[in-house]
Amino acid sequence: MGKQSYSNNVITVSWDSEVCFHSAVCVNKLGTVFNPNKKPWIDINAEDAEKIKAVIGKCPSGALTFEMASQTQENTGSESVTIKIAENGPLLVNGSILLEDATGKRIETKAIFALCRCGASENKPFCDGSHKKIGFKG
Ligand code: SF4
Ligand code: FES
Prior knowledge:
This protein has three helices and nine strands; from the N terminus they run E-E-H-H-E-E-E-E-E-E-E-H. The protein is of the alpha+beta class.
């Protein structure tokens, strides 16, 4: 599916399906805007842009980003790097790090992203939500 963007005259919200691992943080915090039972599933006109921005800042995978009027403003992450182990899920990375593959080639990352810990992701090294399908425990 890739990246989808939704715009009005205040905000553009983008969602990258490749890295979303369906934590449902957005859905639970602001279901009026993020509702997977609707098409499109993101309705940026349902709430104030400030509320939407606040929830985007809590997306643990970095799948959600926003752009205000003329300035791009990705989820910038923390100044110091934190890596949190999600229960039965990925490693949640928050902060700017250098990620390399086995050959030393740099892998582009956002400031917030999730690394697969279960081995089942089809988008390694990133989590794609497959840990739920395989019932990963750990
Ligand atoms: S990973 Fe982000 S975009 Fe995907 S469901 Fe969770 S909060 Fe929403
Ligand atoms: S930890 Fe999410 S797909 Fe592996």
